[in-house]
Amino acid sequence: MKKFIWLGIGVAVGVYLTRKISSGAAMVGPEGLNRAVGRLSDSIAQFGDAIREGMNERESELRAALGVDTAKDQALDITFQRSTQRR
Fold first, then answer.
1. Integer CA distances (angstroms), 2 to 10, 11, 16, 67, 77, in order
2. How far apart are CA 80 and CA 58, in angstroms?
3. pLDDT tens-digit profile of 11-51?
4. Which of 31, 36, 65, 77 is deepest in the core (most CB within 10 A)?
5. 69 with 86: CB under 8 angstroms?
6. CA gap 33, 37 in Å, rounded
7. pTM of the full predicted structure?
């Protein structure tokens, strides 16, 4: 009975290690590197978008606090927002 238990444990460990090794090999190859670089560039782009959005919000808060909000400034803000959304 103990031999069957150890056999089952051996098979489970073998399957686990085979899956880990094959997934590790996929990450080392060109496709894995391409995926990693793609994820990194997407993260950087999202970070930049979040920074721009926060900057625009803070600028509008400052303009409202200083009373600099005019129709011309609002039109420029709308134009700027449209141009950044196209990216």
1. 12, 14, 21, 82, 74
2. 15
3. 999 998 888 887 776 677 788 788 888 999 999 999 999 99
4. 77
5. no
6. 6
7. 0.49
